[in-house]
Fold this sequence. Notes:
Blueprint: H1 2-11, E1 20-32, E2 38-50, E3 56-67, E4 72-87, E5 94-105, E6 110-127, E7 130-145, E8 151-165, E9 170-181, E10 188-201, E11 204-215, E12 225-236
Antiparallel strand pairs: 1-2, 1-12, 2-3, 3-4, 4-5, 5-6, 6-7, 7-8, 8-9, 9-10, 10-11, 11-12
Amino acid sequence: xxxxxxxxxxxxxxxPSQPKWEGTAEFGxxxxxxxxxNFNSSLKAEAKTADTxxxxxxxxxxxxxxxxxxxxxxxxxxxxxxxxxxxxxxKGKLFFYGKGSGRRDVPNGLELRADLGVGxxxxxxxxxxxxxxxxxxxxxxxxxxxxxxxxNLFSARAAASFTTPLLERWSLRGKNEYFRSTEESADQAFxxxxxxxxxxxxxWFMDMGWSLAWDGSPGPGFGRTDTRLVLTLGTxx
Length: 237
């Protein structure tokens, strides 16, 4: 009887468990009319594998401005990220990461900024909806600015993110990333996103966001700093 049971298990193995994904998706629209007509749209999504010691994290963001008089979309921001974390201790407070991302914002002087890097992260808190995370490590950076030859740079990377509950339905969230070339001190880049979130209902929320992008060596004719304000409606899944 036992050999027959073992043979049956070998012939019909249990199917591997599929990873469970969780995340958020946000969408925003703004229409202005009068002396200056334009239409702004934004889309942001993030997803990660849950209940695992080695999560995958995916991110995507788009923002566009369409000028009515020109009848064309003359400003577009694209951002895509992929990360993989592996816990180095049982509590998950210390982890190893590998990540890659690509950012394109041509109207503001950035043809492409792509990075590929590894490093170590530290997670503090993560209680009552709050957390604070730090990451440090080396990266290979490819940067193409408008009007300038592309550069391949070895850079140091530092990143920080946090969530802080404010009231029963309100929370403050932030995400920051900094690159500094190990060869040229002027080759630096910094991005920051700060969101005030209002939980409308279970699974639905509204974000009032402010974003900053700073480039230490922009293309000729472009400024170093760009900012963006956006209001989005989002859902959790």
